[in-house]
Design brief:
Number of strands: 11
Low-confidence stretches: none
Largest sheet: 5 strands, parallel
Number of domains: 2
CATH topology of the largest domain: Rossmann fold
Mean pLDDT: 88
Distance between the termini: 30 Å
Keywords: ATP-binding, Nucleotide-binding
GO molecular function: ATP binding; ATP hydrolysis activity
Number of helices: 14
CATH superfamily of the largest domain: P-loop containing nucleotide triphosphate hydrolases
Shape: globular
Domain ChlI/MoxR AAA lid: 247-309
InterPro entries: ATPase_AAA-3, CbbQ/NirQ/NorQ/GpvN, ChlI/MoxR_AAA_lid, P-loop_NTPase
Strand content: 15-25%
Structural class: alpha/beta
Strand order of the largest sheet: 2-5-8-1-9
Pfam families: AAA_3, AAA_lid_2
CATH architecture of the largest domain: 3-Layer(aba) Sandwich
Length: 318
Amino acid sequence: MNPSDLDPLREHLSSRVIGQQDFIDSMLICLLSDGHLLVEGMPGLAKTTAVKALAEAIEGDFHRIQFTPDLLPSDLIGTDIYRHEKGEFEFRRGPIFHNILLGDEINRAPAKVQSALLEAMAEHQITVGQKTYQLPQLFIVLATQNPVEQEGTYHLPEAQLDRFLMQATVSYPNREEELQILTLDSDQQKSEPKPPAKQLSQHDLFQIRREVAELYLDPKLNHYIVDLVQASRKPEAYDKDLARWCRFGASPRASIALARCARARAWLDGEEFVAPHHIQAVAPAILRHRILLTFEAEAEGITTDDFLARLLDMVAIP
């Protein structure tokens, strides 16, 4: 397998979504790294459209859940139903048992629903009562959320945020891209959107994942990855401003995610080994939702991306 095998998938995404290349790359990296993606952006920026387009181009079951304040955990994972004719309980599976799960506006649901996702995202299984049920081998959660300043949104628990491999941010399109969006919408009103030229089979996807996992990562770059994550926890060793801005650093999951995603980034670039710039390319999306800034940083208008840009400049490359 090689990166050109993903060309039909890329072409389908490009035909449905204008611009947003970083967002598309994040979806592909999570897909190849067997991880989950959190997407944040204002309403109307094609977050849901992009996720649905990705699902159309992959062999597997797809389901969308609209998260609302009255959603219950059983609406997500399923529940035991008593069958009178059998005299026993029977488990009715919920939508979480699909291969690709779109959690739309995930931060509009209360914490008890968010907690229902924790076991599924971390261990690919759920527990109902005294029984544990395995999820499909291909299981990926692509969740969208609106900024917390929006009405009716909740902060996601830090434990759940850490389960997402990456967090992508979607920004407004520029003028040329918005003109293309108008043209695309006009064309879609005249005829149905074209299906993907070829779906990526699960067999091929798992083969690509094995190749990604085997891509060479020099031990010196392992040290660089750990130095980056350690710097988020002990920023005072690098810069006094970094120390003022950071309350909590990233967990060891961030180190694992950096290695996995850097391999996927290198594979997509057609490289046979991981280089430092691959790690730096994926670092913001991996670390931005795992770092908690101080109130002082927020008062100064410092964003997590500002903090990470400074951090990447401070930590030496081997």
